[in-house]
Amino acid sequence: MAQERSGAATFKGNPITLIGPELKVGDTAPDFTVSKNLLEDASLKDFAGKIKLISVVPSLDTGVCDAQTRRFNEEAAGLGDDVVVITISVDLPFAQARWCGAAGIDRVVTLSDYKTRSFGEAYGVLIKEFQLDMRSIFVLDQNDKIAYVEYLSEMTEHPNYEAAVEAVKALR
Q1: Alpha-carbon dihedral of residues 106, 125, 168, 25, nearest 10 degrees?
Q2: CA quadruple 142, 72, 8, 31: dihedral positive or negative?
Q3: Does residue 12 belong to any structural domain of this protein?
Q4: Which terminus of the chain has a lower count of CB atoms within 10 Å, N or C?
Q5: Which of 9, 18, 65, 122 is catalytic?
Q6: CATH number of the domain that 77 lies in?
Q7: Number of domain units in the chain
Q8: How high is the mean pLDDT in each 10-residue block of the chain (172 residues)?
Q9: 65 is annotated as an active-site residue
Q10: Which residue range(s) make up the domain with 147?
């Protein structure tokens, strides 16, 4: 059974349980399998050699998640070709595609953790009570070492956008 971290975070002030380890700067990022669409999967190796900013959101159809993804889409324009910005949620792949089309998101790769919650468990962000991934940010270097991590303590708060972008820039 995967490690559970009770009370590791809250949703509107109410404690929630996160499943999986708490990763730290310097750790090697665990692999994962997520969906690009219904027929194609993606994993960490698909982004080999790139700096990765992984923005995790519970659902793109909520206000903070929408704003977070739009912000990183804007930031991606100035980060260069050696950086990939990935948003992971448990939204179905076609819901992600619909949302991206409506929002004009064209620089962020959206991936879905809906099938197995592989990413959520490996990165310690799977919310036991909701089966959603907790808002968090991971920056990985070209060799998949974690250079920055932010686990939000309250699901409805925004991450530190500036610190995440600065962590990416520091790797260049």
Answers
A1: -170
A2: negative
A3: no
A4: N
A5: 65
A6: 3.40.30.10
A7: 1
A8: 85 95 98 95 97 98 95 95 97 96 95 97 97 98 98 96 98 92
A9: yes
A10: 26-170
Q: Which amino acid is at 139?
A: V
Is 5 contained in some domain?
A: no
Question: Does some domain include residue 104?
Answer: yes
Residue 36 lies in a domain: yes
The side-by-side arrangement of strands in the sheet containing 4-11 is 4-11, 14-19, 126-127, 132-133
Total number of residues shown for the chain? 172
- Ordered DSSP codes for 27-46: SBPPP-EEESSSS-EEEGGG
Please tell me the predicted confidence (pLDDT) of residue 171.
Answer: 97
Q: Quick one: which of 147, 159, 168, 140 has its CA closest to 57? A: 159
Q: What's the confidence (pLDDT) of residue 1?
A: 62
List residues bridging with 18 in a β-sheet.
5, 127
Query: What amino acid occupies position 104?
Result: G
Place of tokens 């793109």: 60
Tell me the angle at which helices 93-103 and 63-76 cross, rounded to the nearest 10 degrees. 70
What is this structure's pTM? 0.96
